[in-house]
């Protein structure tokens, strides 16, 4: 079971990375729908900031998980 753990974690990291990229891709499409509600410019900026931070955290966490487990997977093969 422990032999597959790094590979499973790499797959999970790839899913996190793709989710983060997906957030960046969807932000321009979703923002006009969200801004239909009565919001001022500060609220709109804060909403955009939150979405971008969420995308950065997802993508960064995925990259970190992929790199850490890839190194662990390579060290077991040696």
Number of domains: 1
> Radius of gyration, rounded?
17 Å
Instruction: Kindly report the average pLDDT value.
Output: 90
Please report which band the strand proportion falls in: under 5%, 5-15%, 15-25%, 25-35%, 35-45% or over 45%. under 5%
User: What separation lies between the terminal Cα atoms?
Assistant: 19 Å
Instruction: Report the helical percentage.
Output: over 70%
**Count of separate DSSP helical elements:** 2
Q: What composes the largest sheet? A: none
**Multimerization status:** single chain
Q: Provide the structure class.
A: mainly alpha
DSSP, total strands: 0
N-to-C SSE series? Answer: HH
Tertiary shape: rod-shaped
Query: Low-confidence runs (pLDDT<50, min 5 residues)?
Result: none
Walkthrough of the structure:
There is one protein chain. This protein is an all-alpha fold and 78 residues long. It has one domain. It is 86% helix and 0% strand. α1 packs antiparallel against α2 (41-77).
Strand and helix layout:
Blueprint lengths: L4 H30 L6 H37 L1
Helix pairs in contact: 1-2
Give the structure's gist in a few sentences:
Helices cover 86% and strands 0% of the residues.
List keywords for this structure.
mainly alpha, 78 residues
């Amino acid at each position: 079971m422990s032999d597959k753990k790094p590979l499973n974690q790499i797959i999970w990291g790839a899913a996190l990375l793709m989710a983060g990229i997906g957030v960046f891709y969807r932000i321009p499409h979703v923002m006009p729908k969200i801004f239909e509600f009565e919001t001022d410019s500060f609220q709109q900026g804060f909403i955009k900031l939150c979405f971008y931070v969420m995308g950065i955290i997802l993508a960064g966490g995925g990259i970190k998980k992929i790199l850490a487990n890839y190194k662990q997977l390579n060290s077991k093969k040696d």
